[in-house]
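Hello,

Our lab assistant flagged a job as stuck in the queue for most of the afternoon. It eventually completed. Since we weren't sure the result was trustworthy after the delay, we are filing this so someone can double-check. Below is the sequence as submitted and the structure that was eventually returned. Let us know if re-running is recommended.
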Amino acid sequence: MESSRAPGRRVRRFPLRPLMYTALACVAIAGVTAGGTVYVKAQAHSGGGTVSSAPMPSFSSSPAATTEEAAAVTEPVVDFDERLSDAMKAVRVTGDEKVSAAVLDLESGDSTVYGDGAFDTASIVKVDILAALLLRHQEAGTQLGAREKAYATTMIENSDNTSASALWDLIGKASGLDAANKKFGLTGTQGGEGALWGLTQTTAADQLTLLQQVFGDDSELSETSRSYLQGLMGRIEADQQWGVSAAADGSGWALKNGWLPRSTTGLWDVNSIGRVTVDGHRYLVAVLSKGSSTQAKGISLVEAAAKAAVSVFTGEDASASASANATSAAAR
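-- returned structure --
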């Protein structure tokens, strides 16, 4: 489930100065051609690289050669996939549990995903349902009615299922959700059959794309629609303020959680998506999990994974966060 992409390298080139030409020539002069061209091979001390046999200008009484590109220094590029894979090693996954996490730094635009495969959405799909409804009204040039607003509020803030079912029907169920998601850029999400909106299938990468529609500027949703959805996600009722919010400092979060015990296995789906703020920096985080034996263990897994994901950019110790979450789970 882990990414294994090799770290990239960035090459920066700069000119050798005249004194450097002289130093290189003194180290090892391999020969002089008939035309007077000097060849050198020497170790360069500006980055561990080598200067291979290559022609250099003849030395004469004229001023030394000026700026010419003659060496390269490599700079490492941060591999966030590798960082996240390393951070997730501190997250304890037991038994049948599986977890996938994705995070995006809203300031730099850098993002990374850990794990793959599809997961049941459970109640996090309620954000997608409302986004699809808002998009439908935008395209029709209309606004949410009073009943729709009431449904939207209880669906997001209280995770009310009756409200979700009502709005699921209004958007056209799975076909309406899938049509909206195509415009949002989601490629791995498929609406649940019939009335089973909670069994919509999705990926952490797709949830990150959805969050960009809600919290990013480059969105199919208008600024008014985005602000409306963000506001609801920032007023989640007290007993549901867990999940990705564990990675935030203080109250800097907006989220939606989902939890569902599967009748076929007795195991829990536990998910969390949202925006968190750490030291003034904003991150979008999506964590999906399944296979936990209890809801409490699923929450602990999701919170540890959220902290590990954000640590990729903040540099915090993911191992310490995982230990803290294990203690929290034991207390539940």
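-- support follow-up --
The delay was a queue issue, not a problem with the job. The result is valid. Residues 235 and 258 are 16 Å apart (CA to CA). The chain has two domains: 9-76, 80-331.
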